[in-house]
């Protein structure tokens, strides 16, 4: 602003725009040795801010000031002549760095200096910090335009019609020479495909790099080492050759059988469709339906689901919104019968700036992934290259890249993420249906079949459970209680649990924690229903997550609660038969695999209630769910006069499982996060009343021996903290 004031600009504002440049043009010639004036001091101040010492800070253009100018010219890669130009001042008075910064690449800096040396007169002086960014990409396109014969006054760094036309005839192969070869080499390097020199000679190593690039991007002629239009445009733009063939598309239109046939006729085999929502100001539905899913699959295509209900504004992206979106997407996918392993792509339809992604998109998508990790589905992201790169670094394994908008800041100057599944590169209509064409890497094969709805899947399970409950009720009525005051409903509930837990959880340790099996009852039911192992029972699928419920595991934990029949918030042996026992195995598995992680905490975070990414996990998400469900079902049973069958049916069929973790926290820990940690710590390393309870201390020792678990007291304290954090992250809104 001070400079603008000195050169007579009345409307002072931020930035170094055309008005400032035009006003400077007649002034710069005087900015040399002997000049005296405020502009000299402003220039010196700018050098101090740039990290270049001008020695002086006065209103004289001294030899020291001249040396500072030459140092900046040297760093920028331009002629070191000490002549002040408009472009030089524009570079000086902004925040750009001209030395290699942390995270910068010396070869990228070399590219930046070369572009400045040859083209700064036309495109300005770009940063020389070693960071591949928008200016670098624009500069490389400008160099490409000049290399294919576009005049300096026409070339602009924008890949338009003239550039497309000029490049169509280019074909570089082994033995080719010239400026275009150098540009291709830099393009390959920026896309992590090349590590050789940057001369103007095309060698065999360049051909190999091109083949690798073609294969990575799924370009046609994957075995060709020729740099043609498709390759070169793909190296310097995100959308690449928009006329190339591919097999994927996405659309917001609900499809008919005729639409699917048209897509097939065009050569497409996989289509992206939205799970929920509407499109346009007239709110036309864009959501998948069960009929449409069947139509797509019956028509010979696969599909991949997309979730977007507001992902087109920056303030949408918060952790809480991610939790909500994750649950909504799971529910919609389950209703459609989408199978286990389906990747759901959560849309980030915003051109986020580099500095804004970590504080918005990453908390959002991490929250989504945390929710989906407790389901049968996998997390994907839709967004610019830069958004997808950040998400990839954060642990997201599938990217649907919005390359079509090649001018977006998040695309220009960023390479393709390694984890890309789909590459959206052009839009157009097919028989009146607006589609976005995309490439498929094969990383995500898409959905080729569907399941029945969860309710339909569970019909057999609940019918079977009802019959067992009826048999248990009859058996109890015929029992001789011998004065036992235990209610018939509780005894019957214990018998139901016994039948399901008999094969895995019927041995002596479980007899101590959950009660001995009634051999007469077990024999009678096994014979009647031809039960020989756990596979004899119908399967229960969770209506919230789609995960198959380990019902034998759940009933073992529930049986212990029913056996002791205490207040649920009390700590004791009953915890060991459920969540605390699984936590012991999680501690053991974490300690065994700690070398694979940065710390024991990191190992525990990956093992507690998760299917660990490294090493084995005996305390996965399915185990966590049934431990939590056992507590909630016990409380519901204890506070009701209904049979265990009715309680379980209500829990899984009527939505009581939609708040399983929140209810677990309320039921077991009195809705106190501090109690989660303190109770867990006391259970793992007995303190207070538990320490005085010889029966509990003995049971804990037995469990630790049984599961081969050994840990120190500080490790138990750490485990309690991690468990608390894990439960809190799972809490439903």
Automatic annotation (TrEMBL):
This protein's UniProt keywords: Hydrolase
UniProt cross-references to Pfam families, sorted A to Z: PG_binding_1, Rv2525c_GlyHyd-like
GO molecular function: hydrolase activity
Rv2525c-like glycoside hydrolase-like domain residues: 262-427
Residue ranges of every copy of the Peptidoglycan binding-like domain listed in the record: 42-92
UniProt protein name: Glycosyl hydrolase, family 25 (GH25)
Lineage of origin: Bacteria, Bacillati, Bacillota, Bacilli, Lactobacillales
